[in-house]
Design a protein that fits this description.
Helix content is about 25%, strand content about 25%. The protein is of the alpha+beta class and about 160 residues long. The longest helix has 15 residues, at about 1-15.
Length: about 160
Amino acid sequence: MRAALIVVLAFSFGCQRGKDRDDVALPRVPPDTVVVSWSFISRSPDRRSTHVVLQASRDLTITTRSADGTMMSIERKVGEEDYARLVGRLRSLDCCSLRSTEKERSHPAEAKPLLEIDFGDMRCEVELWDREWREGLARECGFAAAEVHRAGFVPDPPVDDRGP
């Protein structure tokens, strides 16, 4: 009995080795609650649009409309560690503090991607122009979400940044 207890304890502690992450306050919301949503609705006919929805159940749905109008949706389950890492990252970055600095778009085709967060105790909608999502804290928040859904951050460079 004592040997079995030692083996169980050794296994339990052994599984924890290498895990340096702090405990993350996961969202305390019903499983069907959308905890993170990323929407990029293109205003240009040659760019795709993307809408990503992550529920508290860790179900992820990615819907893409290509430049030619073709729609495609992909669904998958996000792993527990990836989910906890995303929640922890969005919390630590304080992505809800982001505010747009511009009232007008710099180019007629510039999109205004939207990041929505609902962790129960933390809720917000952050809508910034393409160029604003490419700098500082906004970039960090966008890439944190993109790392989980892998559908792209902002699909293409801003229209006015295209090369010859």
